[in-house]
């Protein structure tokens, strides 16, 4: 079977995207998706997405982790899929699409960056040294010093496979404050089972936990190993956040064909 694919990346978080508007890729097996995402034997990516038609929406986003399993929301993936939709001729001033965690809105700025509206957060489980929240995917957020020196693979894996999180899995974010409005984030992603250059839902979770205003409008600037993102949101209280927007680059890399 020959598959026409497109490669996109958002701050180093990279994805294979397939145009599935005619449903020709709807029965891809876990084995095939995992092979495509393999960096040695396939194309190589942190995940694979299908652009699919859905009544009432501009499109549907179907997301698979690099391990081949269909997964929860991916923020950088959503932004890349919006840019892909534009390149495929779906031109909108505001995009309205559906993903596994519900409806999303997005727009493409004049500088070609993409703003993606994330799901509201209605619960934060705060502990003395970390917090857990769901921004479309579940995240463990831990503030630390010298985050660039942390062994994210080893430490993240220990948390992800700990007794509490082993069954469902969790993404692990290490966060360091840079200044009043900025943070630096590194993320271990479940499904990839490694550190990624950037994680959109992880950056969002870290930014919410870094709000500088007790309530009302916040904008947090976020640096990751793969580049810069920003998160805008309204903080209602310590557990409730709304009007959350993840903003940053989403870029076409190349297209090709693979035999599977």
Question: What are the key terms here?
Answer:
260 residues; single chain; Diaminopimelate Epimerase, Chain A, domain 1; alpha+beta; 4 helices
The end-to-end distance, rounded to whole angstroms, is 5 Å
What's the overall geometry?
globular
H/E series, N to C? EEHEEHEEEEEEHEEEHEEEE
CATH architecture designation of the largest domain:
Roll
- Unreliably modeled segments: none
Strand content: 35-45%
**What is the number of independent domains?**
2
> Helical segment tally?
4
Task: Describe the protein's architecture and organization.
The chain has 260 residues and is α+β, with helices and mostly antiparallel strands. The chain has two domains: 2-110 and 250-259, Diaminopimelate Epimerase, Chain A, domain 1; 124-248, Roll (Diaminopimelate Epimerase, Chain A, domain 1), CATH 3.10.310.10. 15% of the residues lie in helices and 44% in strands. The protein contains four helices and 17 strands. The protein has a 17-stranded mixed β-sheet that branches. Strand 10, helix 3 and strand 11 (171-177) form a beta-alpha-beta unit.
Write the layout of secondary structure elements.
Elements: E1 2-10, E2 13-19, H1 30-37, E3 47-52, E4 59-65, H2 75-87, E5 95-99, E6 102-108, E7 114-117, E8 124-126, E9 131-134, E10 138-143, H3 152-160, E11 171-177, E12 182-189, E13 194-196, H4 200-208, E14 216-224, E15 227-237, E16 240-248, E17 251-259
Short description:
The chain contains 4 helices and 17 strands. With 260 residues, it is an alpha+beta fold.
């Amino acid at each position: 079977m020959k598959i026409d694919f497109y490669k996109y990346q958002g701050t180093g978080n990279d994805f294979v995207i397939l145009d599935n508007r005619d449903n020709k890729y709807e029965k891809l097996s876990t084995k095939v998706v995992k092979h495509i995402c393999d960096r040695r034997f396939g194309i190589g990516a942190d995940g694979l997405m299908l652009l699919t038609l859905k009544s009432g929406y501009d499109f549907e986003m179907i997301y698979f982790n690099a391990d081949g399993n269909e997964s929860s929301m991916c923020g950088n993936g959503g932004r890349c899929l919006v840019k892909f939709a534009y390149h495929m001729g779906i031109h909108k001033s505001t995009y309205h699409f559906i993903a596994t965690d519900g409806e999303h809105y997005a727009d493409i700025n004049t500088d070609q960056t993409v703003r993606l509206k994330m799901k509201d957060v209605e619960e934060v489980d705060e502990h003395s040294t970390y917090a857990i929240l769901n921004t479309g995917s579940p995240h463990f957020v831990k503030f630390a010093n010298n985050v660039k020196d942390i062994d994210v693979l080893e430490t993240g894996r220990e948390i992800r496979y700990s007794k509490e999180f082993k069954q469902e899995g969790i993404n692990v974010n290490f966060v360091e404050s840079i200044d009043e409005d900025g943070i630096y984030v590194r993320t271990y992603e479940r499904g990839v089972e490694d550190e990624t250059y950037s994680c959109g839902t992880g950056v969002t979770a870290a930014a919410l936990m870094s709000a500088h205003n007790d309530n009302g409008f916040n904008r947090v600037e976020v640096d990751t190993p793969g580049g810069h993102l920003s998160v805008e949101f309204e903080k209602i209280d310590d557990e409730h956040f709304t009007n959350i927007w993840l903003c940053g680059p989403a870029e076409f890399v190349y297209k090709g064909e693979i035999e599977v």
